[in-house]
Amino acid sequence: MLKLYGFDVSNYFNMIKLALAHKGLDYEVVTVYPNQEPEFLAKSPMGKVPALETEDGIIVETNIILEYLDAKYPDKPLYPVDPFAQARVKELVKFMELYLELPARRCHPEAFFGGKVSDETRKEVKRALFRGMTGLNRLASFSPYVAGDQFSAADIMFLYSVDLASGVAYKLFNIDLFDGSQGAKNLMAILNELPEVQKIAADRKAANKAFVEYVTSFQK
């Protein structure tokens, strides 16, 4: 059976959970936080999550895990077969990761964990999020899904990265990142109505207290 290493508050971990649920695959969760213990480094060389243990070995990096799952279990695909359409989905996934997920992550300590970031970081992130969302609105179709009329890996990245980016934008800058993008707003609502997404959200809520305790232990 597949084993998924990570924790339920991690958005990247939840991306893989949604992919597995979408494909109807059985798997075992091994709850672990990022760490530098030798035992975990043998599985994840940088000590990051998620990591997916398969019958052939362990795979890390979310994008690669998504692509592996689609190649290994082609039913209910996450990527189109057509080369250009497939490239477009991968382009959208990478775009959201680079220009929304990663900039927003720089402000997670202040937005979600009671920390502080510098004024310069706030300015850089605010500018980056505006440019990233503007670019996504140019690139995505939202008809109704990010890449067209079929659910894809781009929707998984959208749900679990743009949602957090919008939280940062609202909490720190009082900005609605979806303002002017009804398609993005509608899609977020559609995705959050999916039963598997609601189950993942419930798991996240249940795990949040332990995660906050884990984070605050490093701030003492």
Automatic annotation (TrEMBL):
Keyword presence, Transferase: yes
The keyword Cell membrane is assigned to this record: no
Protein name stated in the entry: Glutathione S-transferase
Top enzyme category: transferase
Alphabetically ordered keywords of this record: Transferase
SUPFAM superfamilies tied to this protein: GST C-terminal domain-like, Thioredoxin-like
Domain GST N-terminal, residue spans: 1-77
Enzyme Commission number(s) from the entry: 2.5.1.18
GO-annotated molecular function: glutathione transferase activity
InterPro entries found in the cross-reference section: Glutathione-S-Trfase_C-like (IPR010987), Glutathione-S-Trfase_C_sf (IPR036282), Glutathione_S-Trfase (IPR040079), Glutathione_S-Trfase_N (IPR004045), GST_Omega/HSP26 (IPR050983), Thioredoxin-like_sf (IPR036249)
Occurrences of domain GST C-terminal (ranges): 82-218
Listed GO CC annotations: cytoplasm
A Pfam family recorded for this sequence: GST_N_3
